[in-house]
Amino acid sequence: MTHKNSVQFPGFRQPFGRGTPLHEGEPATIGDILLSAGSRIKPDALNYKRNGKWHSLSSAELLERARNVAAGLHTLGLQQMDRVAILAANSPEWTIVDAGCHLAGIIDVPIYTTLSTDLIEYVLKDSGSLVLFIDTSEALVRVKDSLANCPDLKNIYLLDEGSGNSSLSDLENIGAKAIAENSGLCELLEQRTKPDDVATLIYTSGTTGEPKGVMLTHTNIVSNVLDVDEKYGFSSADKPLSVLLLSHIFERTAMYIYIFNGMSVHYAESIEKVPENLAEVSPTIFIGVPRIFEKVYARAKLKASQNGGVTEKIFDWAIEVAKEFTLCDERNEPVPPLLSLKHKLADVLVYSKLREFFGGKLRFCVTGGAALSDDIYLIFTGARIGIVQGYGLTETSPVITSNTPEAHRLGTVGKAIRNVEIRIATDGEIETKGPNVMAGYFNKAEATRDAFTEDGWFKTGDIGTMDNDGFLKITDRKKELFKTSGGKYIAPSIIEGLIRSSRFVSQVVLIGNERKFPAALIVPNFDQLRAYAKHKNFTAGSHEEFCSDPKIYDLFERQVAKATEQLSHYEKVKRFALLPCEFSIEGNELTPTLKIKRRVIDKKYKNIIDKIYADAESFIKI
């Protein structure tokens, strides 16, 4: 199945696009970004660690290998707008394949490695992918049965070598030979791509229903690269550590920004290796989801509590100083001399060690994908680890708004980026319009129509408010608001954020739709509980023993009450259950981007939830 023109795709809507660059010399396609980067002399454009040693690929090598992939796919018979899937962890090879597809005018379809085999099969079949790139032979064995059910799939290439299967290098060799025989092939392939052609097909995580393939055009992505780039002052001197999954548009757009600016990109070996890689790379830019920063703080807090005594008290004091110091800046108030002195002392004793964890050279961090708590923002910013929070969706390529190091406001996700508009609907839903908004959902014309207002604004599904200066605040997902049996609406993410501010809480999910009051499922931070138990001179060996211990339940009652004391009566959590295991992607409670699947949790923990409310009936006055 081959499509010559992007407008023929089912569900495709004519995008609000640029079509041509706004300024002379500005890239109009992802291929333009890659060609521009390839013309630079950058010996360490892509850096990766294997067998304990760091290696580099130059910008020239990146372009050459990407062109070989493009020519190789063309030689296999793939035509413009055909689809190619990538099922692999982050690596230079991932970026090379992605670049090769864009230089050939082929649509790539990234697939999360954490997806179940059923969902992988669904994505491959729905997209009609003709070629699959997969990272290892072990991964291939896992999905082998599913691949047999994908009739469109013609070729499979492994990104690693020596497994006896066709590899990426085999395809590159095919392409190199084709280029040698036809010197004009690369130029022919590169010139056929137009800005409003679909560049990638990204399947949403699917917190509700089956995943939808989001069609993002070259204009969508390139406009976001350029309009985000102008806010941050990036340069070729910056050095990012790539941690988030390239399957997600957040990290992929960031990668194009890195390449566009001629940065030296370093790939983290894995999430587990991030602390080690941060120390080795000393990045100036770090992009992560809030969960990463929460874990860094929890780790520092745990270390202080394990040392106990004066060390823990100094740490707690320094954290409060950081918050006060940052609040002065947020309120545009002068820092009192005594607070300034405290901050300098805390910097020596505590903050400098936090900065060392990130390698000591960070200019700032960027976070998105979920809400960053005010406490984490205040703590890290006060420790001179600037965090700027943005907001967007897969459907918006992804950035809609962003704080910046120069323009930021506590509790918000910043202002709309250049060329993007936002408005608040009468029901509070955030709507947006701009060149970054998707062309539609693949094979889903009705879902595409439903995603837009009659006058062409994209409906984000998020509820929010905007202040007089244009700073946007997200209050919750529209579909996640629930109503108690008393008719009161509850915004779960706000309350979850408050409870999660406790150092003893790792994860929390609010429940209570059509119930008399909100309750919660809480996964404790068991490292913190062990330190607490040691301090209180009692033992509880297993996670299950901790969760059933009355002393621990009493601790959490006090923690929840303190965290939510400012809420209205109907919003307060009256009961909760402690769970011994974290919500996870593998357990199907989280999407690959770590968003909670509330429907799954409601079903999976139904017995526990029912018991919470049954036990409460006898003694809680509602």
Care to describe what's here?
The protein is α/β, with parallel strands linked by helices. It folds into 3 domains: 35-193 and 239-280, Rossmann fold (3-Layer(aba) Sandwich); 290-479, Rossmann fold (3-Layer(aba) Sandwich); 481-616, GMP Synthetase, Chain A, domain 3, CATH 3.30.300.30. The strands form 6 sheets. The protein has a 9-stranded mixed sheet, with helices on both faces. A 4-stranded parallel sheet has the order 4-3-5-6, with helices on both faces. The protein has a 4-stranded antiparallel sheet with strand order 16-17-19-20. Helix 12 packs across helix 14. The protein is globular and about 75 Å long. Mean pLDDT is 91; it is low at 1-7.
The helix count comes to 21
CATH architectural group of the largest domain: 3-Layer(aba) Sandwich
Radius of gyration: 25 Å
Structural class: alpha/beta
Cross-sheet strand order for the largest sheet: 2-1-10-9-11-12-13-14-15
Q: How far apart lie the N and C ends?
A: 60 Å
- Main sheet overview: 9 strands, mixed
Tell me the number of strands.
25
**By CATH's scheme, which homologous superfamily of the largest domain applies?**
ANL, N-terminal domain
Helix content: 40-55%
